[in-house]
Design goal:
This protein has 268 residues and is mostly helical. The protein contains eleven helices and no strands. The chain starts with a helix and ends in a 12-residue tail after the last helix.
Amino acid sequence: MSPDLLFWLSLALKMAVTAGFVIVAAMVAERAGPAIGALVATLPIAAGPAYFFLALDFDANFISQSAIGSIAAHGATAVFSLAYVLLAQRFGIAVSVPGAVAVWFAVAYWLRGMEWTFLTVAAANLALFAVCIPLTARFRHVAMPPIVRKWYDVPLRAAMVACLVAAVVGLSGRVGPTVTGLLAVYPIVMTSLMLIFQSRVGGPATAALIANTMWGLVGFSACLFTVHLATVPFGVAAGLVLSLAVSVGWNLMLWTLRGRAPFRTRPR
């Protein structure tokens, strides 16, 4: 079998596995209700498979350094979420989603151009969330109207995440660990939620869903911190499993605190 054919077959398999994972996660979220759904959306549904497949081709140092790029880019997700929450109050989907996406790429590109150590990038990441979480707090408490799900919701989400994996895996050998890490954490799942929900329940309700994910996204930051710190001393497999455990553990903690105001969606 030619190397090119082997590459494309391998890539197709990786995309199919990732799509299947997203479909299962989406089904769990939909059946468990909106509170669990917001927490599931902040698990490493897209970045997890992307890092798993990178680990098959690259060593622990590459994975660890990729996490530095991911931590920087994930800080842009805080600004992305804030931008969408603000835009969705006044504008339709044609402005809100592209506007938020443009903000993410602008901030991620700016952050990518800096020289980071783990301490500086972690501090910048947490500082962005410390600013953005209070700014989105007053938009969390909007009643979610009944949602009529369409047959293409889950396939659309799965296809978008599969394309992200294709981009990360296909470009990783050409662009280096920093850009690879940046691409791996583009908020594709949240983007798909915006596209699917805003057309049906409106901007404020969708913005409330995104605003309620902010604390879960902090857990994803902790997940990325673990990838960087754990993969070299403990090995790639152990480091990735540990990072997943950190993300799940953080969201379980949020779930136990669901009765408190920051994590509960109430009618205004």
